[in-house]
Amino acid sequence: MEIQKNYDVIVAGAGIAGIGAAVKAGRMGASVLLVEHYGFVGGMSTAGMVGPFMKHSIHGQPLVRGVFEDLEDGMRRQNGMIDNGFYASAFRSSAYELLRQAGVTVLLHGEISRVHREGNRLTALDMLTDGREVTVGGQVFIDTTGDAQLLYLGEFPWVKGDEKTGLLQALTLFFRMGGIDIERATEYAKANKHDFFDWMTYDFDFSKIVSVAGYWSNVRRAIEEKRLPPEIEYIFFTTLPGSGEGSFNTSNVLGLDGSSSPDLTAAELTGRNQVDQLVTLIQQELPGFENSYLVETAVQVGVRETRRAVGDYAVTGADVRNMHKFADPVARSSYGIDIHGQKDEDSVLEHVEEGEYYEVPLRSLLVQEADNLLVAGRCISSTREGHSAIRIMPTSSATGEACGALATLAVRAGTPVREVPYASLAAEIGYNLTQTEAAS
Ligand SMILES: Cc1cc2nc3c(=O)[nH]c(=O)nc-3n(C[C@H](O)[C@H](O)[C@H](O)COP(=O)(O)OP(=O)(O)OC[C@H]3O[C@@H](n4cnc5c(N)ncnc54)[C@H](O)[C@@H]3O)c2cc1C
Fold first, then answer.
1. pLDDT tens-digit profile of 166-215?
2. 382 closest CA partner among 327, 281, 294, 314
3. What residue owns the CA closest to ligand 1's atom 13?
4. Closest residue (by CA) to atom 26 of ligand 1?
5. Which of 169, 235, 320, 325 is the Cys-Cys partner for 304 at CB 3.0 to 4.6 Å?
6. Alpha carbon distance 379, 316 (integer Å)
């Protein structure tokens, strides 16, 4: 193995967690390499066109600050974000600016294909660039691939899917439509509440993003007439910063594993077919959509769940339901359990009461058997239920930022990541404040 270059911190995968990790480590003075398979950053937030940012506040006050707030500010400055809805293009340019300012080396079009492990340490990883493997060395590695790829390649412990059945959440290909008469569409929903989800609120404020979900009778009829496949359950869109635009989280691809290339290929094809059928139905039947058109579909199908790390602690559904506070918090969230059911599995959506929140502990970012490998974002250590709540973008950003800080502190001290005192990390990520101060 010939190491071409060494870095203090190597971050694998440039989704929102990887961006949080790399920016934080760079700001703290570490030399950082951020490796990404796509030709752009953002992962699910851009390639998957996922949005809006799920609830991350109590009484209107943010629970996630730091890099996440800076990312939001950058998007707002471009008019690319209103309320919690944003464009993938605004996300990318805001993230590039933060990465540039933090001095992070970004390698796009780089596929991590192998890791080099010596006992409990990773020493280097190989990236496929220009059709050949290039080896880079690091002192601390952060796995933000969403799929726990570094753990998988390095044979560190991981789990996948439901503890009893092995089921993974449904996949969804996002799409965006323009030319919608939003007022007419929302008036229709208001006049037909029986056909929409009961969590919908009807005091629409068009200066914010508006969510509309249901149209059950249209979906049912279309399935009976074989104009839609039976997997489609409802039509759900949220408005975007531009007037008359909506982002649709509606396609529903079942029975496939988002960490397998052949399965992902099948999911892309099924998802695109579903979107074609959905767009036809929407244009032909839904009031307010008479002049609407398809703007774009996501680059890749959205993957909610694949591998999860086995860490020093697994965040559970009970932690979320009981609003568990830990002695070593690294993130706070007010988003509840949200499982998009598979074939023959019911979906679960639980809301957290206003003013309540739970915490994610540092121990869920520490990988068992590993001295210099951390995990952030949707593949942190959790049970399936816990995962369904912590996977949202704001929490993923917060766990990424915590890993970036912890990795840099470990590099500075020359110690395994577990030996960094929690108090030092807390001071770096603002958790030395009391809970009330931190949330205000
Ligand atoms: C359909 C769907 C709807 C959702 N809705 C919402 C929502 O409304 N609000 C919300 O807040 N959250 C939502 N989520 C959850 C959220 O989008 C994700 O959980 C979150 O974005 C995960 O971020 P991440 O950085 O952990 O992973 P990802 O965004 O998946 O990023 C991982 C990155 O790693 C890269 N990578 C992977 N393997 C390699 C490799 N071997 N080499 C190099 N690079 C690699 C990938 O290309 C990717 O860029 C949704 C998710 C889905 C799928």
1. 999 999 999 999 999 999 999 999 999 999 999 999 999 998 999 999 99
2. 314
3. 392
4. 377
5. 169
6. 14
